[in-house]
From TrEMBL:
Organism: Nocardioides perillae
Binding-site residues for FMN, renumbered to this chain: 83-85, 112, 134, 162, 245, 267, 300-304, 323-324
Cofactor(s) listed in the protein's UniProt record: FMN
Pfam family, one: FMN_dh
Protein's name according to its UniProt entry: L-lactate dehydrogenase (Cytochrome)
Any one GO MF annotation of this record: L-lactate dehydrogenase (cytochrome) activity
């Protein structure tokens, strides 16, 4: 590892500002976007500032072991690549580069239904790495089953069903610029490459226009009628563990456990869906209490540094996902940039755990933190 790889220049906190210089206004707008006033996106970050780490003195462990196993997946650190669509907005290599970087670091890559590259190509890029598949649950069962079969065949072991985006959030930043990835020639090959999608929904070449593409997207992926009674379709067609992403209430977490779901991701989608929604970090402790160890609780939304990851782990998360930061790394330096960002975040986390005098993040708890005044 060279020194330039050990830390993101300027630190992870500077990442967004540095990446902004590399990105088109449309791409930056889409990646930064939050719902409505962006209040929830800001609240996600602010919630972390209200907790501070309690350093301890005396003999610190010289080695900190961040490894963990979540639902059978071994991880060198409790940090995953969050599912992110249209990554070609940040870099032409998009999710191929991110999946390669994840494999180099041994971290789990979660591939999005809205990936810019087909899941088979991303799987090949990820090689021996560990990969999970994130499902946006289509309105068409045949298409859903096709996605699940392809994912299993391509070596995705776990299914993450995102439930907070059955309608895409109202994002003024994009509306102002007049931008949507579906109205551009960015291509979202992960679903447009699907044989069922092509047969049933692909606009005929003569009809291909931004509007036709957008209309087909909405027909297939806007699915606000989803409810718990639809779960058997997934169970009948997926053998591995199933996680639900987008849980923000202890009640929903309890229902998920009762329904036999294997894990949950506490997340508000980086504040992109519901303006004024509770900061994801504030939702975490009551949900962790409600779940009470019955299933793993993962967390995302607002993690920018190793200290943030420490805070979420101490407040009850078993692992965290990171979204925008690795996209900014991708914008700055492709695969290498993404790898640098994620490696820096893991090493920062290791350092925080060491200074709190723990040998592993697994022993962190609320008492590792103090509430800032
Ligand atoms: C540009 C962009 C695209 C995203 N696409 C998806 C997606 O396709 N599926 C999904 O479940 N979440 C998606 N997310 C949400 C992330 O998985 C994650 O919940 C969020 O980015 C976490 O917040 P953070 O960016 O503050 O780390 C996306 C987020 C961004 C920024
Ligand atoms: O933008 C998003 O947050 C997101 O989840 C998404 C949804 C559809 C296509 C691309 C990304």
């Amino acid at each position: 590892m060279t020194t330039t790889e050990t830390a993101a220049p300027g630190g992870l906190a500077q990442l967004e500002a540095r990446a902004a210089a590399e990105l088109s206004p449309e791409a930056l707008g889409y990646i930064r976007a939050g719902a409505g006033s962006r209040d929830t996106t800001r609240a996600n970050a602010a919630a972390f500032r209200r907790w501070r780490v309690k350093p301890r003195v005396g003999r610190r462990p010289d080695r900190v072991d961040l490894s963990t196993t979540i639902l059978g997946t071994r991880m060198p650190a409790p940090v995953l690549f969050a599912p992110v669509g249209v990554q070609t907005l940040a870099h032409p290599d998009g999710d191929l580069a991110s999946a390669r970087a994840a494999a180099q670091l041994g971290l789990t890559y979660v591939h999005s239904t809205q990936g810019a590259y087909a899941m088979e190509d991303v799987a090949a890029a990820n090689g021996d790495g560990s990969r999970w598949y994130q499902l946006y649950w289509p309105t068409d069962d045949e298409l859903t089953v096709s996605f699940l079969r392809r994912a299993a065949a391509a070596g995705y072991t776990h299914l993450v069903i995102t439930l907070d985006t059955t309608l895409l959030g109202w994002r003024p930043l994009d509306l102002d610029i007049g931008y949507s990835p579906f109205l551009e020639d960015k291509g979202i090959a992960n679903y447009t490459s699907d044989p069922v999608f092509r047969r049933k929904y692909m606009p005929a070449p003569a009809e291909v226009s931004p509007l036709a593409t957008g209309v087909q997207f909405a027909r297939v992926f806007q699915n606000p009628g989803l409810s718990w009674d639809r779960l058997p379709l997934i169970r009948d067609n997926w053998d591995g563990p199933i996680l639900l992403k987008g849980i923000q209430s202890p009640r929903d977490a309890r229902i998920a456990v009762r329904q036999g779901i294997d894990g949950i991701v506490v997340s508000n989608h980086g504040g992109r869906q519901v303006d004024g929604a509770i900061a994801a970090l504030d939702a975490l402790p009551p949900i962790a209490r409600a779940v009470d160890g019955a299933v793993p609780v993962l967390f995302d939304s607002g993690i920018r540094t190793g200290r943030d990851a420490f805070t979420a782990l101490a407040l009850g998360a078993d692992a965290v996902l990171v979204g925008r930061p690795y996209l900014y790394g991708l914008a700055l330096d492709g695969q290498r940039g993404t790898r640098t960002v994620m490696r820096s975040l893991v090493e920062e986390l290791r350092d925080e755990v060491r200074h709190a005098r723990h040998r592993t993040h697994r022993t962190l708890s609320r008492s590792s933190l103090t509430r800032a005044r």
